[in-house]
Amino acid sequence: MADDDFSTADAGASATYPMQCSALRKNGFVMLKGRPCKIVEMSTSKTGKHGHAKVHLTGLDIFTQKKYEDICPSTHNMDVPNVTRKDYQVIDVSDGFLALMDDNGETREDLKVPDGDLGKEIEKKFTGGEQFMVSVLKAVDEEHVVGTKNMTN
Q1: For the segment 40-71, what is each residue's pLDDT rounded down to a tens digit?
Q2: Which of 23, 77, 124, 141 has the fewest Cβ atoms nearer than 10 Å?
Q3: Helix (H) or strand (E) holding 135
Q4: Is 78:18 a contact under the CB 8 Å cutoff?
Q5: φ and ψ at 19, to 5 degrees?
Q6: Residues 6 or more apart in contact with residue 111 via CB below 8 angstroms
Q7: Which of 53, 50, 134 has its CA nearest to residue 92?
């Protein structure tokens, strides 16, 4: 028993939890094709000859904005990702990585500057000397910067 290493245990909260298909709502989150998605469209077909109503889900990947679709019986369970959003203050941008500080003064430097317009906006604001925050969305062991907001002092 001495071989077990429990030094990196977490609270045991799973990355996803089950929810009945019929209980899902538009703008909620769901796992489609193994990706965390925000539901943008939902339609229910009525029960057929053998009596299962189907739910047709369309969702956008919360990180890549790619569109995913799925159909499941309304009585079945779908996985819903635990999505958390946290704001960090940007303290440095170097080599394509962000140095961030949270409310408790904890710092982290493991998040990449996002691609595209958002990344350009972050670098422009930082080089302009602005004080601003970034919103970091976390789901299924994946974290991405999804937005910026100016700090109110």
Answers
A1: 999 988 877 777 888 999 999 998 899 999 99
A2: 141
A3: strand 132-139
A4: yes
A5: -145, 140
A6: 97, 98, 100, 136, 143, 144, 145
A7: 134
